[in-house]
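Crash report, auto-generated. Payload:
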Amino acid sequence: MESNAQHFETATDALKGDHRIIEKVLGFLEKATSGSVDAPFEAWSKAVDFIRNFADRCHHLREEKLLFPLLESKGIPVEGGPIGMMLIEHDEGRGYVRGMAEALERAKAEPQAAKTVLIENAGAYLRMLRQHILKEDEVLFMMAEDALSEEEQKTLLREFEEHEERELGTGVHEKYLKIAEELEALAG
Ligand SMILES: [Fe+2]
Ligand SMILES: [Fe+2]
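Recovered output after restart:
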């Protein structure tokens, strides 16, 4: 069954495709944190839902559980190398997202304080993830493209799709694509 509307030839292209979707939500966070768009809490909630489920559970876990171990098996070291750095940054991001989610829980009772905490954490997340994506697109994925054969890329791509089915379920990819587009439109 086809669950994914997008078609990529290689696993690294699929990950770059995820990055382009994630960047739409980062664009929203940029506007919302700079105050140029006054985003309602509802939109912030959608962004947190997207980041937790699409960016983290689907995308970061594709990297952590499938791509990185494969690269490690090809002799690319984890400790002290780009993979180790990427793992640390994924965790750093989870901390910021936890901060955003906690702020949203207080949004009704203390809207002003909640907004401040949201903006702080979203700003840090956004700056970190933009750099993170750049490092993956321009360094780590280039290394992966050199290290992996065409066949290995194909197998990995298939594993990515299975991972998404398992983590998100069928058709949920489309839901998050929609959220990303909605938030992008809201950011103007
Ligand atoms: Fe990553
Ligand atoms: Fe990534």
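Post-recovery validation: The domain at 11-31+39-187 is CATH 1.20.120.520 (Four Helix Bundle (Hemerythrin (Met), subunit A)).
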